[in-house]
Amino acid sequence: MSSHSHRATTKTANKAFKSGHASKGSLKQKAKGRLPGKDSSTSHLSSAQTKLARRNTTKQLQQQKRAAIVQEARLFQGRGGVPRIVCVIELGDGTDARRCVKELAGVLGEEAEGVEVDGKGVVNVNASRFKTSLQFLIPPARDLYTILDCTKAADYVVFLLSDETDVSEWGDTLLRCLQGQGVGEVVAIVQSPNPTSPPTPPPSATLKSLLSFIRYFFPTQEKVFNTSISSDASVALRHLCEGTPKDVSWRAGRAWVVNEGPLGWVEDKEAEEGKGTLVVQGFIRGGRLSADRLVHLQNFGDFQVEKIISAPVATAASHRAASTSMSGTASTPTVLSARNPTTSDTLISLNDPDYMENEQTWPTEEEMASAPAASGSMGPPQSTSSLSKKKTVPKGTSSYQAAWIVDDEEEKAEGEDDDDSEDGMSVDGGLEARDGPEGLEGLDGKDEGEEEEEEEVELESRLGESDRFEDLDNEEEEEQLENYRQSRQNLDRTDLAFPDEVDTPKHIPASTRFARFRGLKSFRTSPWDPYENLPVDYAKIFGFEDYDKTGRRVLREGKEVGVEVGTRVEVHIKNVPKEVYESQNPSLPFFMFGLFEHEHKQSVLHFVVQRNTEYEEPVKSKDALILCVGPRRYRINPIYSQHTRGGGKGANNVHKSERFLRAGTATVATVYGPIVFGNQPCLLLKETSDPLAPILVAQGSFLNADTKRIIAKRIILTGHPFKVHKKTATIRFMFFNPEDVLYFSPVQMHTKYGRTGHIAESLGTHGYFKAHFDNVINQMDTVCMSLYKRTYPKWSEPFVAPTAGSIVDMEEDEEMDA
Asked: Quick one: three-class SS letters along 554-614?
C-alpha cells in the first residue's frame, strides 16, 4: 500500500502581469533605501549606468573642491600675493606677543634680520623661503574690542598660554566671545614668563593640560607649540606659511581691506567743512568690492565709495618695464570701479513718513458755524459747545483719536456734571495732565518696566534742577547697591515662580488699566493683524515682501559684481570727517568692511541668542546692552520673545514676550537696527567699570528681519473660587466692580488644573461673578484670564568702542581740569 502525501502548499504561482510601469513596491525594493537625487534625468538608465553617473558626479564635485582649495592657496603665494594676517593674542599672565613674533621670525634667519617688532602693532615679515609673506597684528593686552576687530580680519589667530599661571576670568570671557564670533585657523603656543637660556621645555603634563583647555573652545586643535624651541618654532611657522586657513562663514562673500601703511587724505572743496576723501590702500579679501556699495569704518559708521583704483605691488618685472618704457614710469593706475549715481547705494537709513497720508481732518468751529442748516450731513447736528467739550481718555491718546471715542458722558443729559473727570485726562485740542499728587499711573497700559523707566527719567530731571548734589558714603552706597541687586533677583525669582501674573488694581478700573490688552481664544491660531495700531517708528523703517529671496539675490550679486579678491587697490571714500584720519593710531591696524545692498537701511532685526551660563545677574527686557554683529557694534535695548521650535511662525506669527533672558533655552532678541544678510553671529555684551573689559551676556546668530513678527506681552489676572457647585463656581478677587466683569466677559478663562470656562453673570457690586467650566472645578484651583498686548523695541544707536589711548587721554584731561 503506497503512502499518501499532501502538497506542501495550496498556493499557485500565477503568471506575472506584464505592466509597462513599475509599481511603488518594486521601485522601493529596487532603491534599497537610497533617496532619489535632485536630478531625475538618469531615471531611465539601468542600475549600472546610474551608478556610473553617480560616480561621475561625485568626481566632478571633488575636482571643483580641489580647484577651489588650490585657487585659495595661490591667493597667498608669490611676491605679489596677499599676505597672511596673523593675530597674536596674550591670554596668560607674563606672555609677550612681540617675543613670540621674534621667535617665529628668527626661524627665517637672514630673511628677517631687518624686521622691527618693538613698539609696533603691525609687523610685516617676508618669508621668501615659503613664497609668501606674513602680517602680524599685535593688539593691546586686555583690550577686548580691539582684539575682536583684529580677529575679524585675521586668517590665523595665535593664542599665547602661560606654563605657570592659568587663564584669567578676562581671558575666559575673551575666548567665549571669539567662539561666538567665529575666527579663522587657531594656533596655540605656550610661553614661559621667565625664559631660561638654554630654554627648557615645559613638562608634558602641563602641555596636556593646556591642550585640553584650548580644545574646550576649539576642538580641532592637535598640538600646543613652544616657540622657544627652534624645532617647534619651525613647525609653527611652516603651519602659518603653508597651511590653507579656513574661511569664517559670516565673512564669506563680504569684502574687507586691511590698510597698509599710513592713511591718505585728500581735501574736497565741494564737501562740507571738515570733510574730505579718505584713501585706504590694501588687498581685497573675502569677496568682491564694488564702488556702488557702501563701506563700514570701525567706530565711525558707513560711507560712500567714490572710486577704486588699482595699486599693484612693485616687483622686479615692473621696475624693468618702467626703465624700458619711454616715460620712465610704471604703468599708470587704472580705475577698476567707479560710483554710478543712478545705481549706487545712498546713505538714507530711514523713511520719511507722510503724517498726513490718509488723514481725516476734523472741521473747525468756524466751518461748522458757517455751514448751512440743511447741508445733508449724516449724523446728528453738533453744537459748538459739544465740539469743545472735554473727554476722559487714556493717557497718550491724541486729539484725533479722542474725537472718535464714545464717552459715557455723551449719553447723559446736557445739564449733568461730569463727576468722573478727576479720574481721567481732559482733551480740549490737546492733553492736560492731572494735577493730583498721584497722577494716573498705569492708565496707558504700560508694564512695570516702562513705569520704572518713567520714574527714573523724572528723578533725573529733578536732580538736574537741583544745584546741590552730595555723594553718599561708600558704605551707604554699597548697601543701596546690594539692596537694588537683591530686589532685581527677587523680581527675577517671582517672575519665574509666577510667570506673567499681575494683581488687578483696586483704585483704577481694570478696563482702563488694561485698555491696550486683548483676549485671544488661541494664542497660536487666533488672527492678529500685523498692521493694526502700529507706532510711528514703523513708518520710518524698511521691510521686504520676501526677505529670504532678497537676501539670496543680494548675496549672489555680491559674489559676481565688483573688483576681484586678491587685487591690491586704493579705495577713495568720500565725505569722511577729518577726525577719522587724525585719530588713526599708527601702531594699530585700520579696517574697512564692505556692505551688501540695503545693509544701511533700518528695520526690525531678530536674533536667536542663548545666555552665557557664567553670567549670574538677571537680564531684564529693555536692559542696555552692546550688540556686536558682523563688523558693526550698536547700543541696544532689546526685547525678548520665545523661539518657536524649528523656527516656525505659526498661523498668525504671534510670539510670547519674555520679561527676562533665561538660561538654558534659545530666545529671540528683537531690536531696531540696520539690515543684515547672511549667517551673521552676534554677541550681547554689558559694560562694566572697566571700559575695555565688558561682560559677555549672551551669544547667538541673526534670524531674520521680519517686520510682521508680533511680540505679545501676556498678563494673567487670577481669581479665587469662592463657592463651587460641580461645573459652576463663584469667583472673587479677579475684579472689584461689576463694570469690569461685563467688560471682560467675552474673554475665555482657564484654571491651573486645565479647566476652561467663561463668565456667566456678575454678582453684587464688589466684582464677584459666576463662571461655568467644561468640567468639575476643584475648590483649591486658581482661575486665570490671559490678556495680550503687542510690544515694540527701542531705537538703537552706534556704539563707539573705547581704546586704551582714548581712556588715557580722558584721564589726563580730568587731571588737568582738577
From this structure: HHHHHHHCCECCCCEEEEEEEEEEHHHHHCCCCCCCCEEEECCCCCCCEEEEEEEEEECCC
pTM score above 0.85: no
Give the 3-state secondary structure of 764-782. Answer: CCCCEEEEEECCCCCCCCC
Residues 212, 316, single domain; the answer is no
Q: Give the separation between CA 14 and CA 308, rounded to whole angstroms.
A: 79
**Which of the listed residues 179, 214, 246 is the one where a domain comes to its end?**
246
Q: 304 is in which domain, residue-wise?
A: 256-349+562-579
Measured CA to CA, the distance from residue 650 to residue 205 in angstroms comes to 54
Residue 505 lies in a domain: no
If pLDDT is split at 50, 70 and 90, which confidence band does 121 have? confident
Task: Convert the pLDDT of each residue in 58-75 to its tens digit.
Answer: 899 888 888 877 776 667
HSE of 697, CA atoms in CB hemisphere, 13 A: 25
Spatial distance between the Cα atoms of 766 and 764, rounded to a whole number of angstroms: 6
Within a domain: 698: no
Cell of 440: 494716573
Which pLDDT does position 538 carry in this prediction?
87
The reply to whether 201 and 84 lie within a common domain is yes
In sequence order, the β-bridge partners of residue 670 are 606, 639
**Pairing state between β 275-285 and 264-267:** antiparallel
Q: Which helix (H) or strand (E) holds 740?
A: helix 738-743
CATH number at residue 146: 3.40.50.300
Q: Is residue 434 part of a domain?
A: no
Helix axes 144-153, 169-181, angle to 10 degrees: 30
CA 145 to CA 814: how far, in whole Å? 24
Give residue 712's identity as a one-letter amino acid code: A
Distance CA 566, CA 570 (A): 13
What CATH number did the domain enclosing 752 receive? 2.40.10.190
The total domain count for the chain is 3
**Site of grid cell 519665574:** 496
**CA–CA distance, 407 with 425 (Å, rounded to integer):** 12
**Same domain (yes/no): 262, 344:** yes
Average pLDDT, the chain: 78
- pLDDT tens for each residue of 15-43: 776 666 777 777 777 777 666 554 555 55
Do 231 and 326 fall within a single domain?
A: no
Closest CA to 149 of 592, 577, 565: 592
The answer, yes or no, to whether residue 416 has pLDDT greater than 50, is: no
Chosen domain end from 219, 246, 273: 246
pLDDT for the residue 474: 67
- Tell whether 101 and 221 lie within a shared domain: yes
Same domain, 234 and 270: no
In sequence order, the 6+-apart residues with CB closer than 8 A to the CB of 811 are none
Among 93, 161, 149, 142, residue whose Cα is nearest residue 122? 149
What contacts 673, CB < 8 A, 6 or more positions away?
Answer: 602, 603, 605, 627, 629, 634, 636, 796
DSSP helix/strand/coil, 552: helix
Which string of DSSP letters, residue by residue, matches 329-376?
S-PPP-EEEE--TTTSPPS--S----TTTT------HHHHHHS-TT--
- Asked if 696 and 687 count as a contact pair (C-beta separation under 8 A), the reply is no
**Per-residue confidence band for 229, with pLDDT thresholds at 50, 70 and 90:** confident
Task: Answer yes or no: do 224 and 263 share one domain.
Answer: no
Q: What is the pLDDT of residue 503?
A: 85
223 and 81: one domain? yes
Q: Is the dihedral of CA 413, 414, 416, 418 positive or negative?
A: positive
* Among 761, 765, 766, 775, residue whose Cα is nearest residue 727: 775
Position 101 in a domain:
yes
Q: What is the pLDDT of residue 428?
A: 34
